[in-house]
C-alpha cells in the first residue's frame, strides 16, 4: 500500500537499490529491510536524521528488528547518533506528545536540512 525509500536530502538523490514496496499488514518488515540496506553502507557514527510518518512507533524496537534481518542487510546502528522526526504534513494527525518529541521545528539542524526533510515519505538524511 505504498512505497518506502531512503533519500539523501543533502545531495537530493535516492539511495541506489533503496526503494521498496510496502504491503498492507506487513507492519514494519519492509521498511526495516530498506532502512537496514541503507545503514549497512553508511558509517554508524555519522549523524543521521530519519523522517517517517509513523516514526513514533517504528523506531521503538528497531534495534531488535534489525538484528533479525538477513546477514546481507543486518547492520549496527548507534541510536543516539540518529534523530527521528515526523514530516510536518503528518505531525498534526499524531498525539500532542508525538508532536513535541518528533517535530521538525524543534530539531537542532540548519534551515536547509529542515526544509529538505519536510517531505511525505520515509527519508534518511545525514545532517
Keywords:
single chain, 127 residues, two-stranded antiparallel ribbon, globular, KDZ
User: Which geometry do the CA atoms define?
Assistant: globular
Strand numbers in spatial order across the main sheet: 4-3-5
Task: Please summarize the sheet with the most strands.
Answer: 3 strands, mixed
Q: Total helix count? A: 6
Strand segment count: 5
The share of residues in extended strands comes to 15-25%
Question: Could you explain how this protein is built, in words?
Answer:
With 127 residues, the chain is of the alpha+beta class. It has one domain. It is 30% helix and 20% strand. The chain has helices at 29-39, 55-58, 62-67, 88-91, 96-101, 111-117, and strands at residues 3-8, 13-21, 48-51, 82-85, 123-125. 20% of the residues are buried.
Précis, in short:
By secondary structure, the chain is of the alpha+beta class.
Outline the fold blueprint.
Blueprint: E1 3-8, E2 13-21, H1 29-39, E3 48-51, H2 55-58, H3 62-67, E4 82-85, H4 88-91, H5 96-101, H6 111-117, E5 123-125
Amino acid at each position: 500500500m505504498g512505497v518506502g525509500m531512503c533519500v539523501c536530502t543533502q545531495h537530493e538523490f535516492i539511495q541506489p537499490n533503496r526503494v521498496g514496496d510496502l504491503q498492507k499488514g506487513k507492519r514494519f518488515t519492509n521498511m526495516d529491510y530498506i532502512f537496514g540496506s541503507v545503514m549497512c553502507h553508511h558509517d554508524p557514527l555519522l549523524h543521521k536524521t530519519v523522517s517517517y510518518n509513523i516514526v513514533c512507533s517504528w523506531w521503538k524496537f528497531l534495534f531488535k528488528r534489525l538484528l533479525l534481518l538477513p546477514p546481507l542487510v543486518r547492520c549496527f546502528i548507534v541510536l543516539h547518533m540518529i534523530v527521528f522526526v515526523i514530516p510536518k504534513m503528518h505531525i498534526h494527525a499524531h498525539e500532542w506528545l508525538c508532536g513535541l518529541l518528533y517535530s521538525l521545528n524543534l530539531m537542532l539542524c540548519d534551515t536547509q536540512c529542515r526544509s529538505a526533510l519536510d517531505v511525505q515519505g520515509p527519508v534518511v538524511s545525514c545532517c
